[in-house]
Amino acid sequence: MTAKDNKLTDEQKHKERQQKIKAKVDERIANATEERGVFVVITGNGKGKSTSGFGTILRAVGHGLKTGVVQFIKGSKWECGEMNILKQFPVEHWVMGTGFTWETQSKETDIAAAKVAWEKTKAMLSDHSIDMVLLDEMTYMVKYGYIDLDEIIEALNNRPKMQHVIITGRACHRRLLELADTVSEVQPVKHAFKAGIKAQKGLDW
Length: 205
Ligand code: ATP
Ligand code: MG
Fold this sequence. Notes:
binds adenosine-5'-triphosphate, binds magnesium ion, Rossmann fold, alpha/beta, single chain
């Protein structure tokens, strides 16, 4: 057998392998026929949760969809680069307004702010004109018990059939993970902050 023959069989093998993969993928695509709103959770301790959520909102806006964003925890000192852009588009927006939970002085003020943000969220989750809702850092509201989990699940279950919802944040409650259609967990392999690099404008906020 010459080197050329060897190459041919390699190519044939590659072709056969690719054909098998394609057949499997085609079958899966043919099986996924349902169209409805998808509930996505992006959790874990690594970097990339909020950027993924805002990136998906931008993707939706790019298709002319109407979106809503509620930011549950936001550093009092930090603006959010994504929102500076998104404000120019049809995006309903609410910021809870308090700082990080470990920064704030009063639990009562936090709870009051969380309740208002939750009212805004409920309005979005029952608005048929909104195609996608991002609830950034909402997992902490459940963890700290600021918003009732049963109420959240009820609102998610009763939302418009075609509405997509994305929840981001660490330590997502098991019941929300169970309810979600898509869950991604971002794992920290490394983070610049641990090497003493402070949060950088445009990269971290
Ligand atoms: P990003 O907004 O960059 O997508 P995130 O939403 O995944 O990050 P959060 O848990 O919301 O991360 O943390 C917000 C800030 O903390 C960001 O500035 C981010 O860079 C930083 N951060 C994220 N993961 C880590 C980590 N493992 N160690 C230290 N800082 C982190
Ligand atoms: Mg985040």
